[in-house]
Give the backbone structure.
Amino acid sequence: MLQITLDELDVFSSWLSTRDAGFDSNDRESKANYGAMMLRSLFERWPPCRQAGLEAAEGDEVQKATSHYYTLPDHTPFIVCEANGRPLLRLLVADAGNEIEANELSQVVPMWVIDAVERNQLPKFNKMPFYLLPHPSTNPKQPKRDRLSATEMLQVKKVMEHVYEKVLSNSDGGIPLDQIHTKIEMYCNDTKLEPEMDLRTVKHFFWKQSGELLLLYRPIKG
């Protein structure tokens, strides 16, 4: 039987743009959180969760992050445990809507779950430090090693924009963000990065090592 464990330390670590997740092909900025969506699915019948869903403002970032959750079958079991793994309450997702089980849940649900499903609060994105250097092919004489910090969900195209406007000091009135890839290329470990990637994806799939992320930029001539 498949078992999914949601732990406070990493339950909210899985962020993905709604476009990359296949939820919204036109929205490039909104993010979905898979851990929060799973919690919404588990506690969907729990009255405080239902009420929070009704009160959430349309367009709210947390509402967007969890709006694509799936309704689980009524017979899906779940267990609320202490941090050491000791079970506190066993029930089916359908039972969370019953008065007795709902009251029992209110006594044992940890605060980080309440923050997500009742208070519509999710942890902020983590900050990620990274370095910017010119690509070796540009033959830099004494490259300046710029150390920056940004949210881990920052897209590569925003780094390209920073390089174009701040590092290379272009003052041509700016360029549309969706065209910045025509001016700048960004690399990590010899891999050319797609503008829509976020820093966390780059570090996980292309950097693949300890230490702070290193990004290389190369202006496109012409």
Observations:
- The longest strand covers residues 127-134.
- The mean pLDDT is 86.
